[in-house]
Structures are given as C-alpha cells and as structure tokens.
Write a structure and sequence with these properties.
The protein has 17 helices and 27 strands. The chain has an 8-stranded antiparallel β-sheet with strand order 3-2-4-1-10-9-11-15, covered by helices on one side. Strands 5-6-7-8-12-13-14 form a 7-stranded antiparallel β-sheet. Strands 19-18-20-21-22 form a 5-stranded parallel β-sheet, with helices on both faces. The chain binds fructose -6-phosphate. The site of fructose -6-phosphate (F6R) has 15 residues, from helix 9 and helix 15.
C-alpha cells in the first residue's frame, strides 16, 4: 500500500524515480511525488492523480540531481491532493512514508516550530525528524531519535539538502528493499521497481535503519547498534512485470494461469507415483500425520481461496477439522484452537497487515504456522515456520486472479499430503492428484474456447446496477470470489451467497436492476442447485448460469463449460467468472488494473 522509491548514484535520479513509481503505481495511485536534491537545493514535484501527472511535471522540470526519493500514495490520513502527497518537507528534511503513525496527534502538539500544511501523519514525522536535526547532528541520528518516539507502522525514506550523500531508510511493518547496483543504491517498497536495475538486494527487517550511499549500505538498529547486511538475489524477470501485448495486466494474469499453475504444481505433484510432496513445510511425516486441526487465515480473495481449500481439506482427510478466518476479524477475537493445530496463512503479497498480525499472534501462542505465499521474500514468507511459495509470478493488476487459483490448488496439495501421511481417503486422493495434473490444460481450454462468448455475455449484462452470485458447496466460495471480482473492478454492487441461503433473505432483492450468476456443477447437488435457480427464476431473475452440465437448465443465459474435471471444476468455472468481470469492466470503460479507492498489498489496518 503506497509505493516508495529512491536512488543515489552517479546517474540522474529522476528517470529511475519516475519509472519506479510507474511500476509501483498498483500499490496506490491517488497522488504521487518526488524530490531530488543537491548540496544547494531541492526540486520537489507533487501531483494529484496518477503517476503520469507527476511525469508531466518532471518533463517540464527535469533535474540533474543524482539522489532522490519518491512516493505513490493510497490515502489514509487526509484526502488525495497535491498538498497531502509525499514527499513531505520540514526544514531541510524531505520524507516519504508508508504505514500509519498512530500517535501523530500527540507528537504534533510538541512540534510548535513547524507550520503544518497537510492533514497527514507523515508531515508530523518529517517535522519530528527535523526537530532533532540540529546543527552538527547526523541525519541518521535525527531519524533514529524521531523513530524512537513513534507508535505505528512505517517504511520511510528521508533525504536532506544538508546531506546530499545519503538516503536514510527505516522499516517497522512496511516493506522496504534496498537494491545494490555497481555505482548506485536503489530503494523500493517492492522488488518490481528494481527489475532491470539490479538483482542484488537487502530486504530490510522491522526495526532496522539503513544508511544508503552511492557506494554501499550500512545497517543499524534503533539503538544505533550495527547490523551485518544480507544481500539476496531477486529472481523476477522483466517479462513478468510487463503486459506482453495484452490490453491490461488483469487479462494477462487471467490468461497466464495455465502457465502459472504449472509452476505451482511443478515438482510437487507426481501422477505416476500418485504422490504429492510440498517442500518447505518443515514438518516430518509424523508431524503431518499428527495434525488434527487446520486453521486457515487470509483476507479478501486469499480468504476465499482458503474457504474453498477448507472444503477440499474436509473431502480429503477424514479425521481432520478445519476452520477459516478473515484475518481482519481474527486478530481481535478471543479465539481458541485445539491441540495439534497447524495454521495456513494465505497471502499473495505476503505483506497484508491483518494477516501478518494474526501470524504473529499464532506464533506467540506456539501454533505451527505455514505460509501459502506468492511474493518471494515478503514479510509473511519470512516469518512463518514453514510454507510453500505458490509461484504464480508477480500480480500487478490490483484484483487478484491467478493467485486465487494457485492458492486453492496449494491447499488441495497440502490436503493430499496430510491424507497420504495419515493413510486415509485413498480414492479421493488419487482423483485429486489426477485432476490437479489436468487442471492447467482445462483452464487453458476455457480461456481459448470461451473468451469471446464470455465477452459477448458481459457486454449485454454490463448495464445492470446489482448482481448476486450463488452456488452450493465448493461453489459457495467461488460465488463469493466472483462477486468480489465483479464489484471491485466494475463497481456493480455484487454479493455472493450460498445457494441455500437465498430464500433466507437475499432473494428479496431480486428485481430488474439485478442480474444473478448461478454456479452449478453436475454432481450430487445438481438438483438442489436447480431448486435455488428455479426460486430466482420464479421472481423474474435475470440469471446467467455457469455450469459444467449439459443437462437442461432454465436460465436467461447459459454458459456451459466443457470440462472433464469434477472436484476441481469450481476453479475452472471461476476462470470464466474472472473473464466475465474483466469484460464487464472493459464494456463500462473503467480502469481495469487500478480500480478506484483500492491498492494492491494492504499494509495498513
Ligand atoms: C481482491 C484482492 C484482495 C486481496 C486481499 C489480500 O481481488 O486482491 O481482496 O486478496 O487484500 O491480499 P494478499 O493476498 O496480498 O494478502
């Protein structure tokens, strides 16, 4: 949430700052700004709106300075405006910040010498640093003293005209990565901004401060004690962060699912031996066999993937109980977990603040935690006891698609591994393994064979104001996910329901301003699904049925997806829903990849 960039080297800083902000724009895009400095002056540019607005300013005011920092914002304190955009200035200090300074009001009352111009908590932090930055004080010491008083979360980068040879960065709860170039040092809140500039990076830990110079980096803690640095290699290639000919990242990410899913499964599912082996769990066979309860935690789409995964775990393992919790709720609940619980912590970004808070609480209670994470090197991935990278590659579009599929599949693989360790449910296990192996091809076929038909249906339903998605059993989480995808990018008010729940209230909504998406599988619940559909039809619903069944179904529009799969068919139908949400949004002419009010990677509460 919000993006930070910075660089110090021999080359002009401005081009990197602008290009880095473009790459991080998906993390927040209501305003942006950069400052570059030299020993005499600073060039501060800020603009409301997208980074392209800032770029126009930079084109008019190019700077030759070789040190600078930048920020793209997702507003927390203060409306999106130029005045609230970062960097914030106080005296000689310029500061960009991700996170929330919780005690900013209290700190502000002590800062009488600064005239506040914005409504942000960040300006308070800038003024606090400035208040310690007296004659003869090092910038890093001023930052350290200020941070000792701060309650909250931050990733910050600070520069000063009085010290044009250093960028000071610090982290507590908001990710920051320092890229090591040959004559340059880069700063980014997300590795994607570093691709093409360097592959060597230091992932800052909470409580660490880095002094970034042209020729290297020094790390220390908040007590000014030195810390040895750990340089790691970033393994993301340029293609992964480019649209590669697609109109939008979202379409690219939907369409690349066959490939990303093969990466998720690769080396883990062995069809010949009917085995699944997830490396990285850090659990012995005995420990896996002893698992009695699995608790699954995530937010948004990751939570829905967890919910779908919970059905799979129950199908796969007889003597296992499972619960699923939204991290934003769980973190404040007085929850109790049975003994021999393993927690699955699901997150695409690996940085979601609520999910991270739950992880830390679970660890505090001694619960074994396993991550199902996409972003390599992310905070959650680093803090879990063990886990699995889903290897879906960078997700740039704000709406999560390919990560959902890979997360659900990874939970299914985990279920197979538990079932095999316990020696239970042999029949379903074999079927799951076969379907896991076939899933990439099945998804490939949906994308190839149904894209145009779905685009056509989407165009005809794009004018509706409201939508209801419903499905039973494994299609219930898929209905929730379908509704989330549609609402977050097309702004059609959409809700997902368990089909059996419609008659308990939601069916009252059905009128001509609504359309409904009925998800139906040709399985033992087929007739039950038809009953829910009939009830909606009887009330004048405008139903699109998405199904794998060739049997007679009564709906305004029917999309029959031809798939051989049974247990994993929900993931195939979900891809059709993803395409549907995409094409509705295109038809409405909205910004597909950067929907209003949202940002990728929610690192604040
Ligand atoms: C929806 C979406 C969000 C995320 C949620 C969790 O399309 O992207 O609901 O799924 O913010 O994010 P991660 O998975 O990064 O923890």
């Amino acid at each position: 949430m919000c993006g930070i960039v910075g660089c110090i080297g021999k080359k002009e800083a401005q081009p990197y700052l602008i290009s880095g902000l473009h790459r991080l724009e998906y993390r927040g895009y209501d305003s942006s700004g950069i400052v570059t400095i030299n020993e005499k002056s600073a060039t501060l540019l800020r603009a409301k709106g997208k980074v392209s607005e800032l770029e126009k300013l930079a084109d008019k005011q190019p700077s030759k300075d070789t040190i600078g920092i930048g920020h793209t914002r997702w507003a927390t304190h203060g409306e999106p405006s130029e005045i609230n955009a970062h960097p914030h200035q106080a005296g000689d200090v310029y500061l960009v910040h991700n996170g929330i300074i919780e005690n900013y009001k209290e700190l502000k009352t002590g800062l009488k010498n600064h005239v506040f111009v914005s409504q942000t908590d960040t300006e308070v932090l800038a003024a606090l640093v400035d208040s310690f930055y007296g004659e003869g004080t090092e910038l890093v010491d001023a930052v350290t003293q200020a941070l000792q008083l701060v309650v909250g979360t931050y990733g910050i980068a600070v520069v000063s005209v009085r010290n044009p040879d250093e960028i000071i960065v610090a982290r507590a709860g908001s990710p920051l990565i320092i890229g090591i170039g040959s004559d340059e040092t880069y700063i980014a809140s997300d590795a994607s901004a570093l691709i093409g500039y360097t592959t060597q990076a230091i992932y800052l830990n909470d409580g660490e401060i880095a002094i970034c110079r042209r020729d290297g980096v020094t790390l220390r803690d908040l007590a000014a004690q030195p810390i040895s640095s750990r340089v790691e290699t970033i393994e993301i290639d340029m293609q992964a962060i480019q649209k590669q000919g697609y109109d939008h990242f979202l379409l690219k990410e939907i369409c690349e699912q066959p490939v990303t899913l093969r990466s998720t499964l690769s080396g883990r599912v062995n069809v010949e031996d009917e085995q699944v082996k997830l490396g990285g769990l850090n659990l012995s066979v005995k420990e896996i066999r002893d698992i009695e309860h699995v608790t699954i935690i995530g937010c948004g789409t990751a939570y829905y993937a967890g919910l779908l995964g919970s059905y799979y775990l129950e199908q796969l393992v007889d003597d296992l109980t499972v619960d699923v919790a939204m991290a934003s709720e769980l973190r404040y609940r007085s929850f109790h977990l049975p003994k021999n619980t393993v927690a699955l912590v699901i997150s695409q970004s690996g940085e979601t603040a609520d999910t991270l808070a739950c992880l830390r609480e679970l660890k505090r209670r001694g619960v074994k935690t396993l991550g199902i994470i996409n972003a390599v090197g992310s905070t959650i991935a680093r803090e879990v006891d063990g886990g699995v990278y889903v290897h879906a590659g960078p997700e740039i579009s704000v709406a999560s698609t390919k990560a959902f599929t890979s997360q659900a599949v990874t939970i299914a693989m985990f279920g197979v591994q538990i079932a095999q360790a316990k020696g239970s449910s042999a029949k379903d296990v074999a079927k799951f393994i076969q379907e896991l192996d076939q899933l990439p091809n099945e998804i490939e076929a949906v994308i190839k064979n149904y894209k145009e038909k779905i685009a056509d249906i989407a165009k005809r339903y794009a004018h509706y104001e409201h939508a209801i998605f419903f499905g039973r059993d494994t299609l219930y989480p898929v209905a929730l996910e379908g509704a989330l995808k549609l609402k977050e990018i097309s702004y059609i008010q959409a809700e997902g329901f368990a089909a059996g729940e419609l008659k308990h209230g939601p069916i009252a909504l059905v009128d001509d301003t609504f359309f409904e998406v009925a998800l139906i599988l040709d399985n033992w619940l087929f007739d039950k699904s038809l009953s829910a559909l009939a009830e909606v039809n009887a009330r004048g619903g405008h139903v699109i049925a998405i199904t794998n069944s060739k049997k007679q179904i009564d709906a305004e529009e029917i999309l029959v997806i031809d798939t051989k799969l049974d247990l994993l068919a929900p993931l195939v139908l979900n891809v059709a829903q993803q395409l549907f949400a995409y094409y509705v949004t295109v038809a409405k002419g909205f910004d597909v990849d950067q929907p209003r009010n949202l940002a990728k990677s929610v690192t604040v509460e």
